[in-house]
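Below is the record:
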Amino acid sequence: MDHAVSLALLLVLLVTNVYPSSSAYDFEHCENTVKKWASSSLHSDTKDGHILKDMLFFLHVPRTGGRTYFYCFLKKLYSSSLECPRSYDKLRFDPRKRNCRLLATHDDYSIMSKLARERTSVVTILRNPIDRVFSAYEFSVEVAARFLVHSNLTSATKTSKTVRLKKGVISTLDIWPWKYLVPWMMEDLFARRDARKRNGPPNAYGNDSYNMKEIVMPLHEFINHPVALDIIHNGATFQVAGLTNNSNIWEMHEVRHCVMTHQTLGKYVLEVAKKRLDEMLYVGLTEDHRESATMFANLVGAQVISQLGASNAATESGSVFW
């Protein structure tokens, strides 16, 4: 399992050119910045990594099957009263909420700065990065296309505003990374629809579902677009390292820009991500779903049941868990 996890991360660390070099991000400055961050991140006194602590943080990498784990396992193990306030894109929640024991979110590892490290266990799921790119593309198209059926929504901008006006509703448009990917895809879908109205439908659409340019952005355009390069490429590695464009720590954005400007510095990010994975309570693989789910049940589920049972017993006897 460890070898497979390392292989997945190695595949994720793609060589990309996203940001041009600039004086603000000259190599010497960036190398020192990234090395300093990596050195502080690699230093850890984590002990008993396979023992469940007070809080469980599910670092949900998008398009890895995480919803299955959340609804089929975590929601069954933890009552709603034990869930931390939903975070996802907000990064503005109070982990000190009484009985807050489970945090499930798309936020990256930087959210650990808001949690008590010594009392928090982290779990995640990884997926072959090529498959995850295909899945992210398909999901972006699927969600964006839902809005085309509403004749009163004439643009992606109007659609986004209408959806966000619904109070109490957590929209996909509010959740990272879809808050960036879906509106972008919506804008493209509306533009292609309007072009068909002006020019009429084409004589033929072709047989390649990933290259239907008359209807939707082709996969190769999606992959090479700056938005995808910024969010999808290296996505899981940056999320585990805490370096996404959604990072909770401002200093992390400088590290991120340096790494994306100077490709060779990516080796430090990979080392930090691998170290973080080694310290997690559990790391599953989408491709080995049955084996991973069984391991999750045996390693995590059993400890949650035991821990909550002991907590309930302590409460009934008058002890205070916290």
User: Anything to note?
Assistant: The longest helix spans residues 289-316. The chain is about 50% helix and 5% strand. The beta strands are 55-59, 102-105, 120-126, 282-285. The chain has a mean pLDDT of 82.
